[in-house]
Amino acid sequence: MAGPLTGVKVIDVTTNISGPTLTMVLADLGAEIIKIERPDVGDDARGMGPFIEGEGVYFLHINRNKQSIVIDLKQDEGKEIVYDLVKNADIFVENFRLNKAEKMGLGFNRLKEVNSALIYCSLSAYGQEGPLSDRPGYDAIAQADAGIIGINGAEGAEIARVPVSILDQGSAMWGVVGILSAMLHKEKTGEGQHVTTSLYETGVFWTGYHMLSYLATGKEPKKNGAGHTAFAPYGAFLASDTHLMIGISNNSLFKRLCSVLGKDEWLDDPRYSSNQKRVENQSELKTAIENILYAKIAGEWVELLAKSGVPSSKVKKISEVVEDEQTKATNMWSDLPHAKIENLKLPRLPFELSQSPTEMTQGPPLLGANTVNILSTLGYSKNQIQQLKQNGIIQAAEKQISSH
Predict the structure, then answer these.
(1) Whole-angstrom Cα distance, residue 371 to residue 53?
(2) What is the pLDDT of residues 119-160, one digit of tens each?
(3) pLDDT for residue 397
(4) Domain contains 345
(5) Where does this protein have coiled-coil stretches (predicted)?
(6) β-strand partners of 55
(7) Tell me: the pLDDT tens digits for 16-44?
(8) Per annotation, catalytic residue among 90, 168, 269, 324
(9) Which range marks the domain in which residue 42 is found?
(10) Which of 65, 180, 217, 275 could make an S-S bridge to 27, C-beta 3.0–4.6 Å?
């Protein structure tokens, strides 16, 4: 069964995490992704370890279902190949620093001349305007600028970023939303357009609750560790072996928690009679809860709390999540063929479509694995391709992608 974007062609000149994540989503939805990479090194993520059979895990995670062509974009002949690709493309995606694409001859206005119906997506660090717009930026840098690191962790603890690429992959999601919206507009009008998003804009949007809290109170939001400013008890509580998370957001859930803990008398305690009172006295409430939790391991408490309808979870290690029965039951892992790696497993996109499902059919390509095939499809002769190789305009992988 074909994915919803089957027949859509995407030219991808992105690197690292944000752009490749965006095009991976489009690929899993059925789009054909032609990934243009630099000679010799390719996408920077190829060199981000640890490695499986020499392939970086960062690259493996977000580059499945793509074709790789190596083109030297610094040379005019290389740009001409891109123009040839763009003529029959639907979407072009770049995540260069501001104005770099324009300087390379690959900006929106230039490619619009090649294909007036092209949807062109720019995914940057800081957006298209403003004093920071021309700065480079990685996920952690944008986390700091957007205030996320400033509210992350616990008071007095070492400064810490959120240890997943939330702004890289979050901005990729917004880029996909923008592209799909542009495709609907194009369907109605025939017009292409410029879609823009950034790590910074994503971060500011996601800190919205905290910014509104500041505007409402005039006070800087406090660091809460695993806790919450608005609810209590809410956060990480230590059992006999490890921590578990408990989330109580109303009096009904607090009543259920008290029942499980054998502390029904807390319901009449003026310190805990309302959520506001529990927030005011959350430190002593946490201590009281942990004194009880210490009698059992976290897993046992989670089972008891679940039976009573109290939201909770053991704070799991990554190794536990990999083998978790819930992970298996939701079929989050797929086996993919790869030219060098036996039994490559990758997580699927976290949504499902009943009538046009996403597909993972091919592992990430070797650098330049599809160079010759793509150029041949464009009408380049064997002699032309050989000449381009000799001139260093293109590169092709010695070992092509094949299924096991």
Answers:
(1) 22
(2) 999 999 999 999 999 998 899 999 999 999 999 999 889 999
(3) 87
(4) yes
(5) none
(6) 52
(7) 999 999 999 999 999 999 999 999 999 99
(8) 168
(9) 9-206+326-395
(10) 65
358, 29 contact by CB (below 8 A): yes
CATH code where residue 275 lies: 3.30.1540.10
Is residue 72 domain-shared with residue 123, that is, in the same domain?
yes
CATH code assigned at 356:
3.40.50.10540
52 contacts 344 by C-beta, under 8 angstroms:
yes
CA distances from 164 to 121, 140, 143, 158, 205 (A): 24, 9, 11, 17, 17
Residue 361 lies inside a defined structural domain of this protein: yes
Give pLDDT, residue 401. 43
> Using CB atoms within 10 A of its CB, is residue 4 exposed (0-12), middle (13-18) or buried (19+)?
middle
Supply 376's token pair.
Answer: 């041949």
Q: Which two tokens stand for residue 183?
A: 């495709």
Select from 293, 314, 335 the last residue of a domain.
Answer: 314
- For the chain, the domain total comes to 2
Instruction: List the end-to-end C-alpha distance of the chain, in Å, as a whole number.
Output: 22
**Per-residue 3-state assignment (H helix, E strand, C coil) for the chain:** CCCCCCCCEEEECCCCCHHHHHHHHHHHCCCEEEEEECCCCCCHHHHCCCEECCEEHHHHHHCCCEEEEEECCCCHHHHHHHHHHHHCCCEEEECCCCCHHHHCCCCHHHHHHHCCCCEEEEEECCCCCCCCCCCCCCHHHHHHHCCHHHHCCCCCCCCCCCCCCHHHHHHHHHHHHHHHHHHHHHHHHCCCEEEEEEHHHHHHHHCHHHHHHHHHHCCCCCCCCCCCCCCCCEEEEECCCCEEEEECCCHHHHHHHHHHHCCHHHHHCCCCCCHHHHHHCHHHHHHHHHHHHCCCCHHHHHHHHHHCCCCEEECCCHHHHHCCHHHHHCCCEEEECCCCCCCEEEECCCCCCCCCCCCCCCCCCCCCCCHHHHHHHCCCCHHHHHHHHHCCCEECCCCCCCCC
Q: Are residues 101 and 188 in the same domain?
A: yes
Residue type, 156: G
Q: Do 192 and 285 lie in a common domain?
A: no
- CB burial of 365-389 (b: ≥16 within 10 Å; e: otherwise) equals bbbbbbbbebbeeeebeeeebeebe
Mean pLDDT (the chain) is 95
- Residue 90 annotated among the catalytic residues of the structure: no
